Amino acid sequence: MEVVYEDNHIIIVNKQSGEIVQGDKTGDRPLSDIVKDYIKEKYQKPGAVFLGVVHRLDRPVSGLVVFARTSKALTRLNKMFAEGEVHKTYWAVVKRSERSEARSENDSWHTLEHWLVRNEKQNKSYAYDKERPDSKKAILKYRALSHSDNYTLLEVNLMTGRHHQIRCQLAAMGCPIKGDLKYGAPRSNPDGSISLMSRRVEFVHPVSKELITVEAPIPNDPLWKALCTSL
Q1: 74-85 pLDDT tens trace
Q2: For labelling alongside 183, which of 29, 97, 128, 151 has CA 20 to 30 A away?
Q3: CA dihedral over 201, 207, 211, 215, signed as positive or negative
Q4: Cα 224 to Cα 231: distance, rounded to the nearest angstrom
Q5: pTM of the predicted protein model
Q6: In this predicted structure, what is the pLDDT of residue 109?
Q7: DSSP per-residue codes, 14-51
Q8: CB neighbour list of residue 120: distance below 8 Å, 6 or more residues apart
Q9: Which residues does 51 contact at the CB level (< 8 Å), separation at least 6?
């Protein structure tokens, strides 16, 4: 486990792909329990350790996860996430295509808008150009950061928070995330991950009111490192 920021009220951890943030039906040990053990040992806390889960990342996704260490921080962070006051930036390695290369000289942002329908049984979302029954509007902005022969590194900002939104919308524009078999990638990654990470998080601290900006380190992977060399 890698802690990238901590104080008395919050702790931010760099999640590895394959880890689950909170307990689920698999019974695998969640990251939240690992963080609790870390706090208990570091600060020699007797009894149960409080830790609030305020958001999640899909299991195959890596990057920053914010936890609350106090009930005051948890209440305020929940409100901040709900109102879009926590700004998260994602990086994704996608199949190279004309759409992923769309960029002007000033490296402009592009917007994707779809209507997503979630299939609970398949644990998958489907993107449509027009509203459908039970669909929810999904909006994200993206820009290309760099290219290799076969892949493009995209920076993504979510305007809405939908199930598998980044994975589904990028696939819908013909740019599935590397390793994401569920959304059309031709091959899996050797470690079972998908090449999507929560790269940066920025918000006003719920208690101190200071601006907090944290970045996750680049994954220790040759393709990631090659794509990030020129940045």
Answers
A1: 999 999 999 999
A2: 29
A3: negative
A4: 11
A5: 0.93
A6: 92
A7: EEPTT--SS--TT-PPPHHHHHHHHHHHHTT--SPPP-
A8: none
A9: 11, 32, 35, 36, 39, 67, 68, 69
